[in-house]
Amino acid sequence: MGMTLTEKIMAMASGRDDLRAGEIVYPEADLATIHDLYVVEADRQLTELGVERPWDPDRVFVCFDHDTVPQTVAVANRAKQIREIVKRWGVKYFFGPGRGQGHVFPMEIGIVKPGECVLAYDIHVTNYGAIGCLGLALVFEFPAVLATGSHWLKAPETIRIDLSGKLPPGVGIRDAAAHIIHEIGPDAADYRVFEYTGEALALLGVDARVKLCNLPIEIGAKSAIVPADEVVAGWMRERNIDGFQAIRSDPNAAFAETYEFNLSEMEPTVAIPPRPENVVPLGEAIGVPIHAAYLGSCAADQYEDMAEAAGILRGKKIAPGVRMIVTPGSQEVLTRCVEDGLMDIFCEAGAMVGPPGCGPCAIGRGGPLADGETCIATVTRNDVGRMGSREARIYLAGASTVAASAVRGEIADPRDFLA
Amino acid sequence: MNWTMQGRCWKFGDNLSLDDDILEFAKVFVEGVRVSDPEYLKKHVFTNLIPDFPERAKPGDIVVAGKRFGQGNPHIYGLLGMAGLGVGLIAESVPHFTYRMIVAAGLPTLPFFNDIGSFIEDGDELRVNFGTGEVENLTRGVRCASEPLPDALREIVELGGFLPALEKRLMDMNTKS
User: Fold this and answer.
1) Where does residue A14 rank: exposed (0-12), middle (13-18), buried (19+ CB within 10 A)?
2) Residue A1 near residue A253 (C-beta atoms within 8 A)
3) Quick check: A371 contacting B, CB < 8 Å?
4) Positive or negative CA dihedral for B91, B94, B98, B100?
5) pLDDT tens per residue across span A123-161
6) Which one, out of A53, A189, A358, B158, has a CA that is 20 to 30 A from the CA of A296?
């Protein structure tokens, strides 16, 4: 019996030739990633354990993407404290506020690569699956990784998802990703890796693959991955990043389940509050009045997302009484939006553009929702209180639908905007 | 460690969320910094469902939940708060990540107890052996059982959760090297 891609990557990281789902191993991280909201707590825990510096500072990544612009003196003081801690840790990869969202830009500059095993504090590390890198989150147990480079992990089973066809006009990959997590559901997804295969991938770039890898974690999947292929190789060449390797699941690997989806049959979707798996066809929510629209978060802040939204907003104005915030995923994305004129479109439409980072997806930072408000957003989750008030409601959708709704002042179908 | 607990049953339904039902996530932050002290967190456990739960719950009480207890973003804070209150946890099921967090919080648990809700009503007096998986409903005179945690994970709970267990691992590593 062969091995899945996930079993192969975890075996390599654990110094083993062979590994099967269900076995408990201690994989050593090729990179350990943590963001600003957790540094102080992690350092306190390490200090209590007598650990002053991470096991290998050259393999630690710290990024300021949640509190990019401190709103209070207490938060500013904490930011200062974080800088002092990071200096003491002596980490190789430290990026201050405004550099970008930590689950997006490390791929763009080659800090993470195909075939690597990244252990992280934050669950959305699964984004790296877009380039064939396995991201595994440990949240509260992350200090174990900082202290030792590893922690116990049960090798997960893999669900194979074969994609065929091509998305129709006005339908985004986020719509397809939402449909897929809804169809598979939390019971089947629990502690499994989603591995995407199939002919449709040839037409899906890294930006699109990030959406496929971002959403499954919301329903309990352990990770998600697309085997690195010629698309990823070309994407890395464009950015002068070396270290490409193509590792795939063996043809006779044991998959827990296999699903097939035809992208040609997809339509726009929306996830009804308060859970991300409450995915319904967009038609069921058309006309719901909104107060705010948000484009950004690690689920939708790459260039393709910006271009999708700009395609709808071009020459239009955001509806009176609606505010729209846009946060590009990185300085690279922001620069390209300026160069290609997307920023002009956002500004002329009346949208506010915030600094690269997590934006209001991080519990409303930089634009919280008020009591009784309704927002349509590309954020990762729509739990009660996710973007501020517990009395606000969040509908999740792709970039086009968010832009179309911002223009109409109510949840709207982006296909109505197609020329 | 004494794996047997006796106390009142607090019965809840399915799909309790970590970030709102079990402990409202905003309350984890004090002056912008996350707090993981169980003595602080215990004051906010379940208060969105039962406002005076922290005052009424006693050490030894048992929280009995339905399916997918602790769904949502796997934040540990509510589970640390439950450990701070000294209560135990029985659920029909928990997502895997939450299972990890329950162990890491050092919370005695029987996380996959099929159909537990049909043996037990809110307010019943229970005696639970988390080491063997046996549950005795003293109010109704009913007994039932499920699989206890595997030995390796029971050891982490016994040590007091993730941090004491990591401390032991670091000591073992230093002894070897």
Assistant:
1) middle
2) yes
3) no
4) positive
5) 999 999 999 999 999 988 999 999 999 998 989 999 999
6) A189
Match 């091995």 to its residue by tokens.
A3
What mean pLDDT is predicted for residues A326-345?
98
Q: In DSSP terms, which residues pair with A158 in a beta bridge?
A: A193
Hey, are the CB atoms on A186 and B71 less than 8 Å from each other? yes
The pLDDT assigned to B97 comes to 87
CA triplet B59, B61, B66: central angle to 5 degrees? 140
Q: If you search the block for the tokens 């499954």, which residue do you land on?
A: A216
Testing the interface with A: which of B48, B49, B79, B96 to mutate, by most A Cβ within 10 A? B96
Residue A412 tokens read as 């709207």
Structural tokens at position B113:
């107890």
The per-residue pLDDT for range A197-247, each reduced to its tens digit, is 999 999 999 999 999 999 999 999 999 999 999 999 999 999 999 999 999
What is the tens place of the pLDDT at every residue in A269-322? Answer: 999 999 999 999 999 999 999 999 999 999 999 999 999 999 999 999 999 999
Structure tokens at B132: 């063997």
| pLDDT per residue as tens digits for the range B112-144 | 999 999 999 999 999 999 999 999 999 999 999
A residues 176-215 closer than 8 Å to B (CB): 186, 190-191
Tell me which residue in A78, A140, A363 faces B26 most closely, judged by beta carbons: A363
